[in-house]
Design a protein that fits this description.
- This protein is an alpha+beta fold.
- It is built from eleven helices and 17 strands.
- The protein folds into three domains: 21-110, Sandwich (Immunoglobulin-like), CATH 2.60.40.180; 123-235, no CATH class; 247-380, Glutaredoxin (3-Layer(aba) Sandwich).
- The chain has helices at 2-19, 112-135, 142-165, 172-178, 198-214, 219-235, 247-253, 290-304, 320-327, 341-345, 373-380; strands spanning 22-29, 35-42, 45-53, 59-64, 72-78, 81-87, 92-98, 106-109, 181-182, 189-190, 259-261, 267-269, 277-283, 309-315, 333-336, 353-357, 363-366.
- A five-stranded mixed sheet has the order 15-14-13-16-17. A four-stranded mixed sheet has the order 4-1-7-8, with helices on one face.
- α2 packs antiparallel against α3 (142-165), α3 (142-165) runs antiparallel to α4 and α5 runs antiparallel to α6.
- The longest helix is centred in the N-terminal third of the chain and has 24 residues, at 112-135.
- It is elongated.
- The model is unreliable at 10-16 and 239-253 (pLDDT under 50).
């Protein structure tokens, strides 16, 4: 009995180990005798996991284990031809290609992320060819060439944002799209600059926030969040002096009403919240430390909302799509202001700034007067 049991245990262990792996297989024609390499592309660098010398039918199969807590990226490399892949868990991905057109013209099955990455790469190659053609154009003035390239890049970025990033920012292909490097005669550049361009930082922040919600402890999530934080620091505007509002005067005049739309275009007014303790918050979801601040507010809201506490949060983010994505799952009232009227009447010159409103619909405290917000809320409740 023991002689039979030991081989069975070994077979079970082998089956379990194999079940934990993902597989990349397929055929690459017109590549007989050539070596196909399989690389892992982590944030630490590129590592060759395996290789195989292709036979006449071009068949290959690689298997590995994704030890990461999020989707990871891999590359099939044959001479100067590359196929970029993303793997999440234990997928089986099938690739069919021909060596002469392997980089852009291949078929992929078993992964929606890999299919989307293929689409992105095709568009990327088209952009790069257009840029190189303009750079070699001798009939145009240099300034016109520069303007044309900028226009091409901007149009391409808009396609990436709306078709691949904002649609499903938690997906691997959104991460791939936001991290693209575009090649040109000078070498290459980041399509989205997470360190210096505020519009690009917001795009990064969308992916960072989505990944933080799904892959909170992953190294790639930490990298994204750090890039956003560093970018916000680099591009932060100098703080202007806060307009001081006399607390007694606020209490005498009561509440200045505000009525603004939420993500579904439903209007919400401050006066409708009479009877509740309200935290009126002016904020930027794309601002420094916004993610940590939202977490703190969520904790406060969960603690006090059942006792008659509400948050009325006014976003001043320029990008409405970014605001909608950031706020759609928050449990309190999230509205957006475009003309700055509320910020002016409340004397808000720095963000974030908040006000506490009592049950009688009277403003009683501004954030720069508060040392312990929970203590103040407790007192008002």
């Amino acid at each position: 009995m023991r002689k039979i049991l030991i081989p069975l245990i070994a077979l079970c262990l082998a089956a379990c180990n194999e079940a934990d792996k993902f597989h990349v297989k397929g055929n690459i024609s017109e590549a007989e005798g050539k070596t196909l390499y399989f690389y892992a592309n982590s944030i630490e660098g590129t590592t060759c996991l395996d290789s195989t010398k292709l036979k006449g039918d071009g068949a290959f199969e690689f298997s590995a284990r994704n030890e990461s807590q999020c989707p990871e990226f891999y590359t099939l490399s044959l001479e100067d031809n590359l196929i970029h892949l993303s793997v999440d868990s234990t997928e089986t991905i099938t690739i069919k290609a021909s060596l002469p057109t392997m980089t852009t013209d291949y078929a992929v099955e078993g992964s929606d992320n890999c299919q989307k990455i293929k689409e992105i790469i095709a568009k990327q190659h088209q952009l790069q060819n257009q840029i190189v053609a303009l750079e070699h154009n001798t009939s145009m003035y240099p300034g016109d060439i520069t303007d044309s390239i900028k226009s091409l890049i901007n149009d391409y970025k808009q396609v990436m944002i709306h078709d691949y990033i904002y649609k499903e920012p938690m997906k691997a292909y959104a991460y791939y799209a936001v991290s693209q490097v575009i090649r040109d005669l000078q070498g290459g550049f980041l399509l989205f600059d997470p360190y210096a361009d505020r519009a690009d930082i917001k795009v990064y922040a969308t992916v960072a926030t989505a990944w933080d919600g799904v892959y909170h402890d992953a190294a790639r999530t930490e990298q994204l969040c750090n890039q956003v934080i560093e970018g916000m620091k680099n591009t932060a505007q100098p703080d202007t002096k806060v307009v001081e509002i006399d607390e007694d005067k606020i209490q005498e005049t009561g509440l200045i009403d505000v009525t603004l739309p939420d993500v579904d275009d439903n209007l919400h007014s401050l006066t409708s919240l009479k009877g509740k303790v309200v935290l009126l918050d002016f904020t930027l979801y794309g601002g420094p430390n916004s993610k940590e601040r939202i977490r703190q507010m969520r904790s406060i809201y969960e603690k006090y909302s059942s006792r008659g506490f509400e948050i009325y949060q006014i976003s001043l983010d320029d990008d409405l799509s970014f605001w909608r994505y950031q706020s759609e799952n928050l449990p309190w009232i999230c509205v957006h202001e475009t003309n700055g009227t509320a910020t002016k009447v409340y004397g808000v010159n720095t963000l974030p700034t908040y006000f506490l409103i009592n049950r009688a619909n009277e403003v009683v405290k501004r954030s720069d007067m508060v040392s312990d917000v929970e203590k103040e809320i407790e007192a008002l409740l």
